[in-house]
Structures are given as structure tokens and as C-alpha cells.
Amino acid sequence: xxxxxxxxxxxxxxxxxxxxxxxxxxxxxxxxxxxxxxxxxxxxxxxxxxxxxxxxxxxxxxxxxxxxxxxxxxxxxxxxxxxxxxxxxxxxxxxxxxxxxxxxxxxxxxxxxxxxxxxxxxxxxxxxxxxxxxxxxxx
Length: 139
Hints:
Layout: E1 3-9, E2 12-17, E3 22-25, H1 40-62, E4 66-78, E5 86-98, H2 102-116, H3 118-125, E6 129-137
InterPro entries: KH_dom-like_a/b (IPR015946), OsmC/Ohr_fam (IPR003718), OsmC/Ohrsf (IPR036102)
Protein name: Peroxiredoxin
Organism: Pseudohongiella nitratireducens
């Protein structure tokens, strides 16, 4: 996997993934930025949520669950000092579908957390307390 991050100006950077997709990262105005893109730590949090959500949806689809939506709300705390690393991340999955099995949704969330989501597992191994919860929503 490859990526390139290029400085644009002030606190703005343009990231390009190896697959050719680009994203703008920028800082707040008080740091010389113009607040035109996500912060790098926000991107890390979003990537973790995307990684885990991908797993949960894939696992549920493979287990023939009639899933129509999946949203993960995330809340993270960071250390007060420098470096302001993540100390904890909580992921709450809202899985919408028809006749979803609670057991299957729970299994999908646990498999992502314990086996498949490289991002959250890596953060957990680095000392971040990563927790998960879920709810099932009927459309």
C-alpha cells in the first residue's frame, strides 16, 4: 500500500492514495489553516470507522442478513499533552434491516473488533481502549 501527502500551503495538505483517490487535510484558522478539510487525527478516526463498518456489513451480507443501512457513531478521547494520542475510542453501530438476528449482528461486530479490522486492532495493540456497542433498527 502506498500513499503520498503533499503540502499545499500554510496548514493544508493533499493526500493521494495508491488507488488514486485524493483528500484535503487542513488545520483550524488559529494554526494557519483555512479549515477546508479534515484534520489528520479525524482522518485516522474516520478510517477506523470505515474499516470496521466495511467488515460488519460484509459479514452480515455473507450471513444472509437483510441489512439496508449501517451507521457507526464514534467518540474518541485524546491525551491532554503532546503527543495528543487517542486514549479511547467507542464505536456504536446502528444496523438497520429486516428481521435481523441480534446474534448475527453481535457476531459481526465482535469479528470485526477481534479479527478483521486492521485499524482498530492496531490502535488497540498500541494502547488505545477500543470498545463497541450496537443497536438494531427496523426500517
